[in-house]
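User: Cold shock and DUF1294 domain-containing protein, Coralloluteibacterium stylophorae:
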Amino acid sequence: MRYAGRIHGWNDERGFGFVTPNGGGDRAFVHVSAFVKPPRRPVDGDLVSYEVGTDARGRLNAGKVRFAGQRVERPARGARLPRPWIAACAVVALIAAMLLGRMPPAVVVVYATLSLVSYLMYGHDKAAAGAGRRRTPEASLHLVDLLGGWPGALVAQHRFRHKTVKASFQVVFWFTVIANIGGVVWLLDSGLAGALSPLLRAD
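Assistant: Predicted structure for Cold shock and DUF1294 domain-containing protein:
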């Protein structure tokens, strides 16, 4: 069942606020990630439609939130490659480079470790946002992704529906992805990766 209500108490820095149904009733917590393809960031006073669910503590949460008058569009099939698939392609490319002797196994281990760290950081930040706790600085997320954790970040963004709406974050995130890939390509083309392989494999 969908409800119509109004946004209030919106904290744009933390990305959450509350929505109260028109005509009165219990308010529900609403996170920016609950908005369906929003054309802009929410502000106090916005009229929205939404569904209501509960979290593990039994608190009301708004889901599938749309602005009043927002068109409902069906996503085009195959229009965008899902983030987990991009991450999977990156993993396959890294393993292939390692098997071909062009990438030291230690580098693959670094990618795997940082991807796990990034995934956990995104998960922690999403949980902190929902509970109103201290957030993980965006600069920390970007640094880990730049160093090689971006495959894990892609999976986390998809899994937790986190940081996918904030345009400024996504611009910097994809810059870190491109910069990291560029660094790896340079490492391979320069032959430095091959030269380092014996050293990284040394006991």
